[in-house]
What we know:
The protein is an alpha/beta fold. The protein has two domains: 5-38 and 80-111 and 263-327, FAD/NAD(P)-binding domain; 113-261, FAD/NAD(P)-binding domain (3-Layer(bba) Sandwich), CATH 3.50.50. The chain contains nine helices and 23 strands. It has helices spanning 13-24, 51-54, 66-72, 131-143, 171-187, 211-223, 265-269, 308-327, 369-384; strands at residues 5-9, 32-37, 41-43, 63-65, 76-79, 82-86, 91-94, 100-101, 104-107, 112-113, 126-127, 147-153, 194-199, 226-229, 234-238, 241-244, 248-251, 254-258, 261-262, 293-295, 338-345, 348-354, 363-368. A five-stranded parallel β-sheet has the order 5-2-1-9-20, with helices on one face. Helix 5 links the parallel strand 12 (147-153) and strand 13 (194-199). The mean pLDDT is 90.
Amino acid sequence: MPQRRIVILGxxxxxxxxxxxxxxxPFRPRPAVQVVAQxxxxxxxxxxxxxxxxxxxxxxxxxxxxxxxxxxxxxxFLQDTAVRIDxxxxxxxxxxxxxxxxxxxxxxxxxxxxxxxxxxxxxxxLAICADYAAREASVQLxxxxxxxxxxxxxxxxxxxAARPHFATNKEPALYEVAMLAAARRRQDVxxxxxxxxxxxxxxxxxxxLGPRGRRLLAKRLSALGVxxxxxxxxxxxxxxxxQLATAGRLAADLAIWTPPTRGSELARRSxxxxxxxxxxxxxxxxxxxxxxxYAMGDAVARTQPKLGHAAMRQARVAATHxxxxxxxxxxxxxxxxxxxxxHAGGGVGLATITDVPFGGRMEYVYVGRxxxxxxxxxxxxxxxxxxxxxxxx
Length: 393
């Protein structure tokens, strides 16, 4: 077969995993791979909540050098931003460089923050998922000794008919901040009276978990004195307060967000979205109309929590399907599954594996020190493996 030209758009969880699989699988001949990303580094975002207790210097240790990783894998790197994809011509229009052609596209650019969807909210407000935002949030949180800390999960804008429906995005990061901050407050003899309030549009915390996981999470939050305002909508943001649809005005000395999110503007401009900005795919992560476009990670329309582990699994499914198609072999589709672990404070963690949100019955939940260790071990393995794991999901 002629050598394929593969372009990977994005170098986060999904993009790095795709890079790994495209080199690990025995393609014949090896494809020529071009990686295009806005930044020259990748950040391990699941550890950003640890900045709540470890301080802003912690964030700088969480990076992977993408150009160096590309050289190690014999891939080319281009720092740029895709502005439009032309699937008929198989071209990607870039902001700085000339258009880039592809035979196969692996799309892993993620989703877009929609700060302006809430009146009074902007990108200047504190957030916890991005490295630059986590640094400032950490500084402000470490200064806060008393008063009210509001942790707010912004809404996720997608197809309202999608099932299961997830009202918010990246909410687990706020669970961790709440539990870590509450546990630190209990251990700090200098701490004043700090009230922690978690505001979410979900009907209950743990929207991506099974019933047992939700109960254990709620129990842990309650034991740490974290107040939860569920099924709540933020109508507007004002200096020092939030206006809520049900609870009314909530005074907040400090508010930290996971921002409102929507589908990709790139997908909209390219006419490749589902009408809501998300990329529609088959169970093999192929675009429903253009089979030489694979999408994975936060950009896809498939309904499941936007988790790093899910993005890595989808990258494996996509790369394996491409290889299996070329070899005339069967491939395994993606099986929706929530696999996650969260630091719960005090050396305790919560880990779960479940398919309950997708109509299954499997749910394994563990709360204890092993779960806390597992969360740390996953991050260490990801960083040492430069986006890969010893046993890939």
